[in-house]
Design brief:
The complex is a heterodimer of chains A (384) and B (223).
Chain A (H helix, E strand, L loop, with lengths): L2 H9 L11 H14 L7 H9 L25 H6 L1 H14 L4 E3 L6 H5 L4 E2 L7 E2 L24 H17 L4 E7 L1 H9 L1 H10 L1 H23 L5 E5 L10 H7 L1 H12 L4 E6 L6 H8 L3 E4 L9 H8 L4 E6 L1 H6 L2 H15 L5 E5 L10 H13 L1
Parallel strand pairs in A: 1-4, 4-5, 5-6, 6-7, 7-8, 8-9
Antiparallel strand pairs in A: 2-3
Helix pairs in contact in A: 2-3, 5-7, 8-9, 8-10, 9-10, 10-12, 12-13, 16-17
Chain B lengths: L2 H13 L3 H8 L9 H20 L5 H21 L13 E6 L7 H12 L3 E4 L6 H11 L3 E5 L6 H14 L4 E5 L5 H6 L4 E2 L6 H16 L4
Parallel strand pairs in B: 1-2, 1-3, 3-4, 4-5
Helix pairs in contact in B: 1-2, 1-3, 1-4, 2-4, 3-4, 4-5
Classes of the chains: A alpha/beta (384), B alpha/beta (223).
Chain lengths: 384, 223
Amino acid sequence: MNLLGMMKTLKSGRLPPLGTIPDSLLDAAAGAASFRGRFRKLTSVERILTTFRHKEPDRVPVTPILCSAARQISGMTFPDYALNADKSAQSFIDGFDFVGGDLVILMLDLSVEAADFGQKMNYPDASTPHPDYSQPVIRHIDDYERIRRIDLADAPRMTEFVKLCRIVAERIGLRGIVTGFVFGPLGVLSMMRGAENMFKDCVLYPKKVISACETITGVLIDFVDAQCRTGVPAVSIDTLYASRNGLPKKLWEEIEGPFSRDISMAIKKHGVVVGIHNCGHDLYFDSQIKFMEPEVISFAHLPDDCGTRKELKRRYGDHVTLLGHVPTPLLVHGSPRDVMEECKREIEELAAGGGFILAPGCEYPPNIPLTNAIALVKAAEKFG
Amino acid sequence: MNQKRILLSLEESVFSKNSDEVTRAVQAGAIDKILPSDIFKSLSKGIERAREQFRNGVYSIPDFLLAIDAYRRGIGFLKDYAVDITANNTECPPKVVIGVVEGDVHDLGKNIVAAVLEASGYQVHDLGRNVSSEIFIDALKKTQASILALSTMMSTTLDTMKALIWMVRKIFPAVAIIVGGAPFDMDLARQIGADGYAENAIAAPDETRRVLNNISTQIGFVA
């Protein structure tokens, strides 16, 4: 994108795709913002772009990853939040306006894609939607090969999600960075088979699983293409099973690795930033970086090759922006003071030199009060 | 195959995650001459070795799940062959009622913990997933279990779990309660009234033993 095009996009209240801006220009802008940040408050967009370029902004950027928890602000039910883009958009914007933060991660639930592949779902009023595992799409090993490609036009949940991206990207505009979301092909399959069976199938019948991943990835590429066209500056890929909670590293690289690369490349083609979300234990930073080359990794636990946060920062902090990793249990049972103290420790160990966004390790717990989300944002303002 | 070789084969088949080999071993002619308790011990040794590999990071979750399948294949045979597999044991093993609380359908972690506890010598009554509090209470009444193991992977079910723990405390004060799942740490486990918290399947047997001993001491006898 040329300078004129960038100015035009900015003038219309949207961020030009970062991948289309030359690195030298981004570095110069980040350097200037970092310098200005010593004297005055930056905007959320400036703050995040500066940290993406591994320079220190005025303070650490923050996101409370307020997804379904924000529906409490207007008393929305889970089904309304999950199934109606206008309502979920309102919920995300309420969360952004009420609690604050610099980044909005649009994640509804992990069944969006699987539901459109025909997985029967339960939509309880007071809890997250989930598959009806008594009626899995994949009952038998041969069912992997029976999965058929679907058109986004026939995929109501994915279509609503794309609409959600469009509404929130427009309404947040340049007030913050909005990211789309996609569950990786193994994640989608686990919703249609049950994780336990799918893990065993990966070991015993990898070719069948790979064949299903191939079909699903084709649809996921259409899905991220559609998200990127809405104007979201980033899309996050959830590759949960690239962790000790999922497959051994080598097996993940053989099965999901290549497909995760295809999805990542489809996002990058639009100049959109690729993020990874993985809240598993001992996650494989190295493998995921090798295949997806992300700008950002959202994590809950330390990767398998790092024993401490300092080691994590030393090993990965100069080329990936780390997003995390306030523990979910602490958000559930800790006081706001406890949360702020944990945030302070994380900022001290991870924020130097940029490349860090303070956040929970995973989605903010859906049914708890929002006080600890506010504490998290306050901690970035106070200690960042 | 002689008896010793059958027992070794059972242990090795579980350890090497091979359910078909377990079937072959139990179909060997001499199996009916072996004490059920010895068969149980061999299967348990196999799963214990697999757990050790899991603990050391050699086995992944899928590996361990396949070892559990092989172990369960053997236990299934044993249950058909000798209804009370502990008939030759002088001690009655502690009973555990385990399940995923109402509102949650994620049972992967619970399934692994149930198998590990069974292999560690507990008599496990697995109620499955999305289990109502009434069913947990009924099961404790019927089985006279000394341990209740509750699992959830979601934070939305914590209130349900807390209420269930409160009820169990009132009705069965001698029952030790252990919890596990993604939203927990030890502090949260204590806060909702549990006696113990198992971070994963590796920690589950030791933590179960610890809470059982604690509660036994509190009420004046040693299990």
